[in-house]
Fold:
Amino acid sequence: MEMFVIAALFGILVGVLSGLLGIGGGVVMVPLFRLVFGLEPIVATATSLFTIIPTSLSGMAKHVRNKTCVARVGIVCGVAGACLSPVGVIAAAASPSWAVMGAAALIIAYSAFTMFKKALAAPKAAAVPAEKGREERACSASQASRAAASEKPAETSTSDDGLSADSADFAFTPLFVAKIVAIGVLAGFMSGYVGVGGGFIMVPLFMALLSVPMRLASGTSLLAVCILAVPGAIEQGLLGNIDFLVGIATAAGSIPGAFLGAGLVKRVPERMLRLAFAVFLLVVAVILTVNELGFIG
Structure:
């Protein structure tokens, strides 16, 4: 019972990070399962992959409702990743434990470095007095409403970044689709190999290669994770590598946590989101590396 409560409490934190940053939560759960519950590396990655699915579904549902995801990108990326996820599972089963955890730490650290660069390059929000800011926003909104009424007969759903969540502002050319597929293939393989959803790979690549803003990248990533994690989780289950008790206990907290985290996306500035994501990844990479070197755990 105590283990169930601890896992559920950790699950809430995992869920909030998942919904807010667009990750499946595996980069937190794998070290958690290794350090706190003492699971073997292959069991930790398998249990993480299992728990990622309900966690991502919860956050994705909120993002879809808030129109903070690009559905077509997420679906194409997820299907491409689903094809490679079982291959990653097979590779993990044939690899030594240190190789699996080492690969996880390296990829997480690289993603942290990439996101730090993006965060530092992002412009800071202009400091505007509260009253003046409200007046300017009200005036701009009024002018925009009048212009839209005179020029466009129909409304288009947009996110806070001004981009349509229905993908209208993205040209799905063959090159654009090829980039999506490439991202999905990489994320899918690493999802099966390391036991993560692949969001820590997809979010930076969506921003760098597809020019998807962070606010839309988070929800889009979760949609892809929901799809690509399924084949790998099924395969791990058939191999008997999943600790279902730990996974279900963690999901009990991560499901409501992910829903809450997804609702916070519109309230957090873009630059702060990127910095938070980078710091989070860096800490996880360090903890995982130190643990596998035998200094802790």
Observations:
- Confidence is low (pLDDT under 50) at residues 126-137, 144-168.
